[in-house]
């Protein structure tokens, strides 16, 4: 009986889309178990935009968004490299690095990443500040059985979690589109204004499964 209760505590699933407006996922401890698995509506896409907000005090490497397929563990990964002080976008297992961001601890950061599969160009928007466009990979879509994870980085499809790359902190407002969001729409997202919700992932209608100690709480707001 205790074993059954433990399984229920460790794994919670939103069977139907759940409105998380005004909510956040809290990852309260370093672990290679706790994560949130997201369900996307599109198994095959080329162009992509991913936006999310995060709040952490980590001073080490950590994954912010991890999408893997059976053939590629890093099909769409957003990763902070602490040693080199750079935000990395891994697309189709190819990496581009972005330096110079003021990635301060203990405040909310908004990060959007766009990728054009035809040109192979990727671009980051960090708290509304855009990066240069860099080439990563072109000529093929992200296809197959996609697994999207928050809280961990996937070194294999759906697993291979590394304790030292886990995310500790809060995460909110995760959206994903199968096209490149316009600069104006990205700025609306950053500013918390009305914007077009993601058509692959949308925070107000999110299908997800929680494994381990991850809490759903009211979003932390800072008053000045």
From TrEMBL:
Q: Which cofactor does it need?
A: Ca(2+)
Q: Cofactor note, please?
A: Binds 2 calcium ions per subunit.
* Keyword Hydrolase attributed: no
Q: Name one GO molecular function term.
A: metal ion binding
Q: Where in the cell is it found?
A: Secreted
Q: What is its main location?
A: secreted
| Residues annotated as signal peptide | 1-15
Q: Which domain of life is it from?
A: Eukaryota
What keyword terms does UniProt attach to this protein?
Calcium, Disulfide bond, Metal-binding, Secreted, Signal
- List each copy of the Pentraxin (PTX) domain by range: 21-222
Q: Which Gene3D superfamilies match?
A: 2.60.120.200
Matches recorded under InterPro entries: ConA-like_dom_sf (IPR013320), Pentraxin_domain (IPR051005), PTX_dom (IPR001759)
Pfam families from the entry? Pentaxin
The yes or no answer to whether the keyword Secreted is present is: yes
Q: Name one GO cellular component term.
A: extracellular region
Q: Which PROSITE patterns match?
A: PTX_2 (PS51828)
Subunit record text: Homopentamer. Pentaxin (or pentraxin) have a discoid arrangement of 5 non-covalently bound subunits.
The entry assigns this protein to a family as follows: Belongs to the pentraxin family.
Record's protein name: Pentraxin family member
Kindly list the organism's lineage: Eukaryota, Metazoa, Chordata, Craniata, Vertebrata
